[in-house]
Give the backbone structure.
Amino acid sequence: MVHKVLSEQGAGSITTTAIRIRESGIERRARFRGLAEPLSLLVALAVLIGVFSLLNERFLTTSNIQNVLTQSAIPLIVAVGATLVILLGSIDLSVEGVMGATGMTWILLSNNSRGGADLGPWAWVIALGVALLLGIASGLIFTALKVPSFIVTLGMWYVGLGIATMLYGTDLLPRLQDEGLKGWTSRISFGLPNSFWVALLVIGLGILVLRSTRIGRVTLAIGNSETIVRSAGLPAFPVKVAVFAIAAVLSGLGGILATVQLDIGSPTVGSGVLFIVIPAVVIGGTHLAGGKGGILRTVLGVFLLTILNNGLILSGVESSYQSAVTGAILVAAIVFAAWSQRDRLRVAK
């Protein structure tokens, strides 16, 4: 009897040891994958920089580096919001419409060639308020009515574009008349473009929200399993609406900065931004199914695409080929990122 008990205890300890070894192996592999993804992006960036610097001597000049930072600033700002939405397991396609509506609202309420009221700082508040309302509307329709996020935000894209088009009207282009703001985004302060300083501030705030606030923690939890979040009594509904609202406000900020950069108001001021932002988030390693990823990874993805576009232009590659290369990278990145998560991806998300 004693021998039997000892045998059972010995078998139990062996089983426990085996489980611990297996768990430690899984943890090591998870840590390795977590490090491998950003390292692979850094290697890809280094390769691109090396290749383009050999192809064109202007690539690594100070002026071109500052140009790259200016080009990346607006996508970085918008991508912070897009990352939060994708971490939910959802997607936001309303970026360009929100940018157009916000940019047009802002310039018409600022000192512009079409006249009207110059509201100064209040123009920023009202314009970003328009973006906020569009984001809240997307979040409420998605969350309360259970409409898939890609359908809701695709519709909101055209709502924003419609608002921008109506504001644009049939009059002359509204040109920015404020000499202090003209060209402000590309001016250099402390070695960096002003717009990039704004992007750094947004990135820092985004990381703080994701890592140190309840909204960030619940966002990650919803992406992993909304059922568990609801059963734990966590506020899934308001967090999802808040995330869409944050993303819209950041798109709106990007629309205002793009308008400042162009010095004119245009309903299509955000044209092409969506097709940088979404690929950058995915290439950065944020899972389309949600729950895994981060803003710093997205930053690497934005830089990868911006440097690629900049290098192709300096190398004299035709615009049609540039689009083909960018599109191929997008498809490859989505297939690579989504393949291991294909069982979790659902249209309803």
User: Anything to note?
Assistant: The chain has a mean pLDDT of 85. The longest strand covers residues 188-189. DSSP finds twelve helices and two strands in the chain.
